[in-house]
Write a structure and sequence with these properties.
Length: about 170
DNA sequence: TATTCCTGTCCTG
DNA sequence: CAGGACAGGAATA
């Protein structure tokens, strides 16, 4: 394989973001505090790929960053989602969640036809490499509380605050 | 409220 | 290949 992945950084009110793309589309959108940390994260997820810092990705980063600041606007970029069949099913279901809404893990499990596989759904969310593009932050516990978030519960809460209609 | 079992996937030995 | 860990939930006492 030894595939080439292009990436670039951006700044949002939530911190630094990294957007990485293959020839097929975006493979990862990562959130963090430090660019160095994000690159390390990216390499962990795609150990076999080679990475190129690409200026022309800045336009793409800008679109994703805009989606962070204004979640109600749709983010229509090509995605190259990698994962098991189960994970793909979960992530597809997540993309159907409208902005401003939240869904429980049980609800997601029911939608993908595995109502008992709640913990598996949580695992798939945790493994989701596409922050924002796949709104795993809209998945909360059955009682409405936030449990965890791969990039920090504080960011999860901030995102939900921003898109919740009051 | 606390315990226990269930669940699908990934990670480690 | 086996065992444990996980961003949960429901049933039981």
């Amino acid at each position: 394989m030894n595939e080439e992945i292009r990436f670039a950084f951006g700044q949002t009110s939530l911190g630094t973001i990294l957007v990485a793309s293959s020839n097929q589309g975006v493979v990862a959108v990562l959130l963090g505090d430090d660019p160095r940390e994000l690159v390390g994260n990216l390499k962990d997820r795609f150990p076999k790929a080679s990475f190129v810092s690409a200026e022309r990705e800045q336009a793409l980063v800008a679109r994703v960053a805009a989606a962070v600041e204004a979640p109600e606007s749709a983010l229509d970029v090509a995605l190259d989602v990698r994962g098991t069949a189960f994970q793909q099913r979960v992530w597809q279901a997540l993309r159907d969640i409208p902005s401003g809404a939240t869904v429980s893990y049980a609800e997601v499990a029911r939608r993908i036809g595995a109502p008992k596989a709640i913990r598996a759904v949580a695992g798939a969310c945790a493994a989701n490499p596409l922050a924002i593009a796949i709104p795993c932050h809209r998945v909360v516990r059955n009682d409405g509380t936030l449990s965890g978030y791969a990039w920090g519960v504080a960011r999860k809460r901030a995102l939900l605050d921003r898109e919740t209609v009051r």
